[in-house]
Amino acid sequence: MVVAVITSIVLSFFIWTNTARYQRGRNIDVTSADSNKNEVPMNQVISPTSVIWHDETDQHLIYNSNENISLSVQKVMQDWKIATPKLVSKKDGAYYQKVIHGKNMLQLVYPTSIATNVFGYLLNNDSLKGEKEDQFNRILINLKDKKDQNIYLANDSNYAVYKAKVKNASSVPLTKLVKKANINLKVRLNIMKHGVFTFYVDPIKLKGYSYVISGKQDGEYTTALFDSNTNGLVTSEDNGVYSYNYGESKRLTSDHNTEELTFEDYTDTSVPKTQLAFLQRGYQKIINLQDSITNLRLYNADWKNKDLIFREYVEGFPIFKKSQFGSIRIKFSRKGSTEHFLNKVLEVPVPSNQAATTLKSTNEIFKGLQRVGFSPNDVQAVEVGYQWEAESDNEKVVDLKPTYYIKIDGHWKPYNEWTNESAEED
Question: Rounded distance, CA 267 to CA 334, Å?
């Protein structure tokens, strides 16, 4: 017992006095909040979060913990000359199935659809920056067929496929990136009622991680969000929920019980008129909210309702916190803008004593859901992600444990909460 206490004290000392030490030598795609957030470009926050490679036989979800494949592919593509995409097919499920299962295809998958002119802006490609707002969430590139000098853009929601001619392109650097992947999981893309789902064919083994987390005092948020003019703030408190009002124009609500905050700006009544402006304004708002946005990714963009959701990612998988809105949710309307966010941000990794977790295949997950009465058509989305679990003996450290998350009736819950069964392989 004494040894355990001493060990805990020593570990805590090193966490607080030398956290940077744990970053060196650990190949984890999460960086310190000391990073200059202004150096994190928009095309990193709005980027594909999954990379799928189809060799001669099977599809594989790939990742490299030493180098983000998705960002590296985007960097290569910035030197390509990409022509205006042309529609090839739409609302043809059979053809779409064939396209997304094409052999020797590298797929970059966004968690939400974006417009082609947004894509042009992110790549700084003039021919794509026009007024067209064709939607897509998959980029497909053939790495073997030299005669196929095109990239393909595909949209899961309406099975639209676009083809764009490419010049000054080579598959060599992309093939090298594929070969360097150190995470390789066999998958199959299945078209379901609510979209295209990534099925893990076999049980998958993933590491758990632990991180130091940081937060801010309410005063730091009021200074940033109320334009540094906090003299006229009216403050109230009710059962741990603090409200800060600046006249009738702005309000910040901070729930100290859940560490969830909501900022309402009734002066921000200009609704974005284009999808590019929509995403640009969302990007500017998250920069204003968080000191570190290195691991933040756009998770869902609802253009119709002017609603954006961002999540943090680790090793290519989303982190699900104790909220339904991810890490940050931003909504624009003519009545003003609203920002929901959590006062918890990942700082640096620390040594973890978690054993690796082996999760069931996705087929087994669906069988478990059916046993408790949910049909495949009830399932709106399935994600392998990391569950956010606070350590009982150290409130400054959080454990991230892999599991399946299921969305049913508009709500995300871990698999075990839907079924009372573990998502782990026996």
Answer: 9
